[in-house]
Design brief:
mainly beta; Methylamine Dehydrogenase, Chain H; 5-stranded antiparallel beta sheet; 1 helix; globular
Amino acid sequence: MAALLVLSVSLLQVAALEVEPQGSTGKLNYSPAIDMGEIPTDKCGVVVMRNEDERLEVFAIGPEDSIYHKWQKVPNGKEWTSWQSLGGSFRSGPAVAKDPAGRLQVFSRGQDKAYYYKSQQKASVSGDFTDFKTLGGKFRGGPVVSRDSEGFLHVFGRGFDNNLHHRQQLPDAEGGEVVWTEWQNLGGLLTGFPSILLDHESLLHIFIRGQDRALWHLKQLPLQTEKSIVQWGTWESLGGVLASSPRVPPIMNSVNLIEVVVRATDKAHWLRGQTASHQGGVSWGDWKSLGGIMSSGPSVVLNDEGTMDTFGRGPDRHVWTKHQYLTKAGLSWTSWVDLGGITSTTPASAVRGDGTLQLFTRGADRAIWTRMQEPNTNGTLIWTNWVSLGGNTKSFNC
């Protein structure tokens, strides 16, 4: 495998010359001859979210299409509860986020292809949820959920027109908790799942793989009126040829710039990030290869140092990782490191309350497995062995 981790052909740079020029804006073109609902996507097996009291909680789909979850008994601990069912019958994997009150809310696509959600009754009380409620709509794939700077949730999904649709929470003018807007069509023509980021100006950014397999970007724009509001801008092509949906951490890096990681058609992971200068302002840099030969898209996390870690599934079914770190000359990356395991889906990664990282993935036995960092005797971080969390789970598109 180590020999495979040397990039031999810069396919992404060559192919980027064939797509719309960098910085172009507007609508994506659509060919009716292509059914984008049949384009393959990555497979995931587990979703992880941190509770308000710093305990990790994982969610998966059981064999009867219900959502199951289990959680750490104490923050940063190694003991977990047993699996518990949240019920329902779903056609997609779960999406999880915290609402303004700190309660986990779980979303998924029902058998009628509408979106449904349920919420913790009280923040950090993991076993007590409301009943499922519907958000309506008709969607090809599962929901993607993000928080804004006020903690309100935004739900995104690919409709049967292959456009990106959006619905969000707003404060209730009459003093209630929240109300939901109607669905809004944001266009875009996706061929996968969106990735959402909240910037340091409290504006949301959306990244998708378009029909041309390029990376496309849409961001909110502030409007200076009597009451400050935001509106969505126009889609911007960032070029490239993507083999999977893009991934960004949910917040910007330590210098308030965006970095996007993708899997390209050469099966390597590639990075495109913003650069900044006093003379030129903020702009998009060139594509840079992170190397590797991957059979899954990336799982990307912003670590406690403000740098990134990216994870992927190799053709040997092992999880491989690469770590970004700061040097005197600037940011650099380690070589790819083999974390082992026999996985059947893209890994999921999370930052624990103490700043260390923890991995989750679905094994070949359909159980969920985990591996985490812990301090060594010399103060460095090492990875523990893989541990099974049990379960009999299904994979889902992601």
